[in-house]
Specification:
Strand order of the largest sheet of chain A: 2-1-3-4-5-6
Oligomer: heterodimer
Largest interface: A-B, 14 and 14 residues
Order of helices and strands of chain A: HEHEHEHHEHEHEH
Strand content of chain A: 15-25%
Helix content of chain B: 25-40%
Number of strands of chain A: 6
Distance between the termini of chain A: 44 Å
Number of helices of chain A: 8
Largest sheet of chain A: 6 strands, parallel
Strand order of the largest sheet of chain B: 1-21-3-11-12-4-5-8
Structural class of chain B: alpha+beta
Number of strands of chain B: 21
């Protein structure tokens, strides 16, 4: 029995060593979209509800972002053909925009948090392209659990040793914001 | 005491068993049938049938219930059309299309610096709703239960809530930006409703309670009308108290057509009944039963006929109170023979020339034969087609009761979420978007006060030897006629069971599309043949796709057994009293 307990403890310790630690994101925060789906607008509602100091710009450029004094960049990932059309940009331009933002943030010590709020309904080739491009820049990734049915985020977690956290409902994100972004 | 308890328990069980209904994608029953795009709504109708109501009672209850469970697709702020076949043999077409307010004109829009496209998602985009008046007219035609009892299931659903399904969640997500702006109270604490959430709508329950207590007139001249008029005045909408008071739903005899020995009963203009008859008349000249549903030649013939008759629709369908159009000619077999000659079996019509192929129906209006007309050779100048995006919105349900009454009913708020203007739990339609974007001399869809604008809905009842055989319909904007025609050909020419007809991949023939939009599921050879041999530009969609509508259908077999099939494209269901 004692041996089993020791073995269990060792397994826990090994996994703990690999699990990335929770990140404390500072304010003020810039929230932008990565793909122009409605998820970004929902993040704005959640940030307001969590009483964060934030600004929201769906199509902000790296230059405009640099002019602010932001300590955290939240990119809400979700590609929408309709949203891209309304914003007057195509997917290639959108990918270039958000990668430019993330690179700028990394170079300037600004933390980057990626959110995938809309789960399985907003997974697809274009959304996955944005996830893949942005993952190397992320300090943390938060995703809706049903968006990981194909193991996409599990794979990313093994590829990038940063903090990953899943949630069941969009409303759960308010708790995530309160506990991770309220500094 | 124990005996009393047992008696109460037994009574309760008897009631429960007695009021049981069965709901599934496909259901068979001889006690009545409801097929709808939503299982909650279908079940409401089945329970009314179970309680002894007839098809008209059930239809009214389903109409109100759909406004609760699919608030994005229809509801109090919407409009529609119903076809009714009574067991006594009487047939009715009930027109509750939205009516243009008196102040809605191009001149007024110009004066305000606005266009139809800029007001489409504002209160100005709303026309006077017709659904409540439609339910009242249907009730007067032969319902047996008090109106308040028929509204009550919708009130219960709004109060007790429904579990949000994929279609609901996706539609909220797609419309979120509009909703957070115009209808934040509708949302779930400002967030989109998600699959599995319990959605309630207390505001709608209260509005429905007012209508149940004060009568449908309260929507047009009473308490609800006052609220609507105040909302519109406050938010710069066109609808006034006078517009509401002037609204009436019409009752006519349906338009009658035939197809291979079956009788088709369809709506009048301004909706697409005549177009459906015109399409079936042309298809009757082809031996489709020698082909199969996935034969490229069958797809080609049907798609080309649909496209040609969509071209004609733009010239011959509008509000009959405002335009004298050749509906007899358009729906005649002789006109169909002339149009039949327009189909090239070996080559698709060049989409850029669709409007060079207008069929002149005027010479056929008084029963002229095609040989004589064609010898005189008519020609007509082409009007430019406007490429408008039409939403997969709207909703449809079909009902047959055990007495032999049938109702086919389509209702809508036009786009999903309509104008997105939200009052007391319901959304206003944006039917204004169906008018010509600007005034065009001679056009039959110019924005005109009082007019009911042309749309493509087409609830249909098909009879054989004087008995109801099929009750058919679908939502789906510009795809409606394409999907209904394919359902009819599938069941009549290809002998498909109705559930298979609903499931079979669909395609579109529509003059606004330069390509053939087709659900995946056709053999690769069919797609290649359509593209490489016949010259169609193919645009393949995933299967199933809501774009092609949410068709549902009921068939009545020779032994009286009714089979209902709900839409697979919109989480639909059939529901029936348990046998």
């Amino acid at each position: 029995m004692k041996k089993v307990f020791v073995l269990f403890l060792m397994v826990i310790l090994v996994f703990s060593a690999f699990a990335a630690e929770k990140v404390n994101f500072e304010q003020p925060i810039m929230i932008t979209s990565g793909g122009q789906s409605p998820g970004a607008l929902q993040m704005k509602v959640l940030a307001k509800s969590a009483k964060l100091d934030y600004a929201f710009e769906k199509t902000i450029s790296a230059d405009e972002f640099g002019a602010g004094n932001f300590k955290t960049l939240i990119i809400v990932i979700g590609a929408s053909g309709k949203g891209l059309g309304a914003a007057g940009i195509d997917i290639d331009a959108e990918v270039a925009r958000v990668e430019g933002l993330a690179a700028f943030a990394k170079e300037n010590g600004i933390k980057v948090a990626l959110f995938q709020l809309e789960g399985a309904a907003r997974r697809g080739t274009s959304t996955d392209l944005i996830i893949d491009v942005l993952a190397p820049y992320a300090d943390a990734v938060f995703f809706k659990a049903d968006g990981n049915e194909d193991g996409k985020f599990t794979q990313l977690e093994s590829d990038y040793p940063v903090f990953f956290e899943s949630f069941e409902k969009t409303s759960d994100v308010k708790g995530i914001l309160t506990s991770n972004f309220s500094n | 005491m124990r005996k009393v308890f047992l008696v109460i328990l037994l009574s309760f069980l008897v009631v429960c068993v007695g009021l049981a209904t069965v709901t599934a994608q496909t259901v068979a029953s001889s006690l009545g049938m409801v097929a709808a795009v939503n299982p909650y709504a279908a079940e409401v109708g089945a329970k009314i049938l179970e309680e002894g109501g007839n098809a008209l009672d059930a239809a009214i209850a389903v109409s109100y219930a759909l406004g609760v469970v699919e608030p994005y697709a229809s509801g109090l702020g919407g409009e529609g059309y119903a076809i009714i076949s009574l067991a006594s043999g009487e047939k009715y077409a009930v027109d509750f299309k939205a009516m243009t307010p008196a102040a809605a004109t191009y001149e007024k829009l110009k004066e305000l610096g606005l266009k139809i496209s800029t007001v489409n998602y504002t209160p100005k985009g709303a026309l006077v709703p017709g659904i409540p008046a439609g339910t009242q007219k249907v009730w007067e035609l032969g319902a047996t239960m008090p109106m308040a009892e028929l509204i009550q299931p919708a009130i219960d659903l709004a109060k007790n809530g429904i579990i949000v399904n994929e279609t609901f969640a996706q539609t909220v997500s797609d419309g979120y930006e509009k909703l957070i702006e115009s209808a934040p109270d509708f949302l779930n604490d400002g967030l989109a409703w998600e699959v599995g959430d319990l959605f309630t709508n207390e505001d709608l329950a209260e509005t429905l309670e007012i209508i149940a207590q004060e009568g449908v007139d309260s929507f047009y001249t009473g308490t609800v009308a006052e609220k609507i008029a105040a909302f519109m005045a406050e938010n710069d909408g066109f609808i006034t108290a006078e517009d509401l008071g002037n609204y009436v739903a019409y009752v006519k005899e349906p338009i009658h057509g035939t197809y291979r020995g079956y009788d088709l009963y369809v709506p009048h203009p301004p909706v697409s009944g005549p177009q459906l008859i015109a399409v079936m008349n042309i298809l009757e000249n082809f031996n489709l039963s020698a082909l199969s549903w996935d034969d490229p030649l069958a797809v080609h013939i049907i798609q080309q006929v649909l496209t040609l008759e969509d071209v004609d629709r733009k010239y011959y369908i509008s509000d009959p109170d405002f335009f004298d159009l050749p509906i007899n000619g358009f729906t005649s077999k002789e006109f169909a023979k002339m149009r039949f000659m327009e189909i090239d079996l070996a080559k698709a019509i060049d989409p850029d020339t669709y409007f060079d192929h207008i069929g002149n129906a005027y010479p056929y209006e008084n029963g002229e034969i095609y040989e004589r007309v064609m010898l005189e050779e008519a020609s007509k100048e082409a009007l430019a087609a406007e490429d408008v995006y039409e939403h997969p919105s709207t909703t449809h349900f079909s009902i047959v009761d055990k007495y032999g009454n049938a109702v086919s009913w389509t209702q809508t708020i036009s786009s999903f979420w309509g104008t997105s203007s939200y009052l007391d739990g319901f959304f206003f339609n944006n039917e204004i978007g169906n008018f010509a974007s600007s005034y065009r001399e001679g056009d039959i869809i110019n924005l005109t006060p009082g007019i009911r604008v042309r749309t493509t809905i087409c609830p249909t009842i098909i009879e054989k030897d004087g008995k109801v055989k099929y009750v058919i319909g679908t939502p789906g904007g510009g795809r409606i006629i394409s999907t209904i025609v394919q359902l009819i050909v599938d069941v009549i020419d290809f002998n498909m069971p109705i559930d298979q007809a609903v499931k079979t991949p669909k395609f579109v023939g529509y003059s606004s599309y330069k390509d053939v939009r087709i659900e995946s599921g056709y053999p690769a050879e069919t797609i290649d043949f359509l593209s490489e041999v016949l010259g169609h530009k193919i645009n393949e969609y995933a299967y199933p796709d809501l774009f092609f509508g949410g068709p549902n259908i009921i068939s009545v077999e020779d032994d009286g057994m009714m089979i209902g099939a709900g839409s697979i494209r919109r989480n639909g269901a059939a529901s029936a009293p348990e046998m």
